[in-house]
Design brief:
This protein has about 475 residues and is an alpha+beta fold. It has twelve helices and 18 strands.
């Protein structure tokens, strides 16, 4: 147990050492271990360094093979040798004997010619970078990879070193990447890969791909050109950009639709007013004529109802255009909200079909002052009441008006189709009729109500459940005693 613990401790120390260290069998000259610094220095992956003859890591003839390898070692000091890297390039180095651990020796290898200028400084700078950083030779062979590269690609830096950079490119695109790499060698300069903002597909160790932005910088060394690549995963940014563009397209579509509808409603208002006047006159004449056929009277009555609904739709569209443009003007005064609610309920009763139970009941203990624009307050109450009747399935509608702590509170409750909780917020959007609330109109009524309520400094809330009905609660500023209304 103690021996195993000792070996693990030695391996940890070896791997963490900043110098390039090799563990070599004294008898055979076989490399049994190489730390990360050594693998970087030799630009070889672990499998190319470990279990290979020491002589294979140096220039031909520099180190004898087999047991004779120890003949190159002097009694002390560093031995100058020529190192051969994984790509075949060579540089001057010094080999120094370290501690002897039983049957193995630890050798330290230091570069004399510095294959990378300021290598250790460069490596430390790359480790502090927020992006995955790769340094590759002109051949495409990776010679340095920082810790972020492992996070991004899933490959430990020492396993990336010595590999072609194309291993990080999807297989179908590797030949194209090689061509781009060769073209960059002809005119190397600091620039983004491709057009600014363009992303490229990169591949992780598990085979998954992701969009990446890549910046390239040339680094000239005595051994040749190196290319420093900063790689950034832009998956989240791409997703956010796609969502932003989709939202912008949606807003543009709504804006265009509103403009068309506003122009159309304005142009249709005058001819519709003339048509309504003619229908009302015809209905008035028919009702005075005892011999008028009931079928004809009924037909004209339906025409009158249809023209009235069309007029309401056009008014809603014009209201939408005005509110969107910020042209709403409020002329506030003290208004009895309870009395206004009763008037609207009476008007609504005149439109209820015979036999329907969709009566509107107003509950108020007395006058309920509200400091509002009376025309807009009528619009708020009328929209809520007509909405409750429309979606109430013919059931009674209750309207409660009361004063509550300096506010005029209006509550409109129906027993109709209701709205599912996930759709409640949508019903206040323009051109929305959520869930089962599908009926005539453009879905503007509740949006207009909300805009008018909030313009008065009030609030509107809704509680609803499918098949149980809805309750809309509106709070508006109340006229106080100083206004002479209480």
């Amino acid at each position: 147990m103690e021996a195993a613990t000792t070996i693990r401790a030695q391996n940890s120390l070896l791997e963490a050492a900043p110098d390039a260290l090799l563990v070599v069998e004294a008898a055979s000259g076989t490399v049994t271990a190489a730390n990360a610094a050594a693998r970087r220095l030799f630009a070889r992956p672990r499998e190319e360094v470990e279990q290979c003859p020491l002589a294979a890591l140096f220039a031909p003839g520099a180190v004898p093979g087999g047991a004779a390898w120890r003949s190159v070692l002097g009694p002390s000091g560093a031995l100058p040798l020529r190192v051969r890297r994984g790509d075949g390039s060579e540089f001057d180095a010094e080999l120094e004997v370290g501690p002897e651990w039983g049957p193995v020796l630890v050798l330290s290898v230091r570069s004399r010619g510095e294959p990378l200028p300021g290598e250790e400084l460069l490596r430390r700078m790359l480790e502090t970078a927020p992006d995955a950083m790769l340094v590759a030779e002109s051949t495409g062979r990776i010679v340095v990879a920082n810790g972020r590269a492992e996070t991004l690609f899933g490959w430990p830096p020492d396993e990336l070193v010595g590999q072609p950079v194309e291993m990080l490119v999807p297989a179908p695109l590797r030949e194209v990447h090689r061509e781009h790499r060769r073209a960059y060698e002809e005119t190397p300069r600091a620039r983004p890969m491709g057009a600014p903002g363009q992303s490229f597909a990169a591949v992780r160790r598990d085979g998954s791909t992701f969009p990446a932005e890549i910046s390239l910088s040339p680094l000239r060394t005595p051994q040749g050109l190196l290319v420093v690549a900063a790689v950034r995963d832009v998956t989240e940014r791409r997703r956010a950009e796609d969502e932003r563009l989709a939202l912008a397209r949606e807003h543009e579509a709504v804006r265009a639709r509103e403009e068309v509808l506003a122009v159309a409603s304005h142009d249709l208002r005058a001819p519709l007013a003339a048509l309504r006047l003619q229908v009302e006159n015809a209905l008035r004449l028919l009702r005075r004529e005892p011999a008028a056929p009931d079928a004809v009277v009924g037909l004209v009555e339906r025409m009158d109802g249809t023209s009235r609904r069309l007029a309401m739709l056009l008014d809603g569209l014009l209201e939408l255009s005005s509110l969107r443009a910020g042209k709403l003007v409020l002329r506030r005064e003290s208004v009895d909200a309870a009395a206004l609610a009763r008037e609207i309920a009476q008007e609504q009763a005149g439109r209820v079909q015979p036999g329907s139970e969709a009566r509107v009941s107003v509950h108020a203990d007395g006058p309920v002052p509200a400091f509002c624009d009376p025309v807009r307050l009528e619009q708020i109450i009328s929209n809520l009441v007509s909405n409750a009747v429309k979606y109430g399935r013919g059931n009674p509608v209750d309207v409660t008006v009361r004063s509550e702590g300096g506010w005029a509170e209006l509550v409109v409750a129906d027993r109709g189709v209701g709205v599912a909780p996930e759709h409640l917020e949508r019903i206040f959007e323009s051109f929305e009729r959520a869930g089962a609330r599908q009926a005539g109109g453009y879905g503007l009524g509740l949006w207009i109500v909300r805009q008018l309520v909030e313009a008065h400094g009030g609030t509107i809330r809704v509680r609803s459940s499918p098949d149980e009905g809805s309750v809309f609660s509106v709070r508006l500023p109340s006229a106080g005693p100083a206004d002479g209304s209480a």
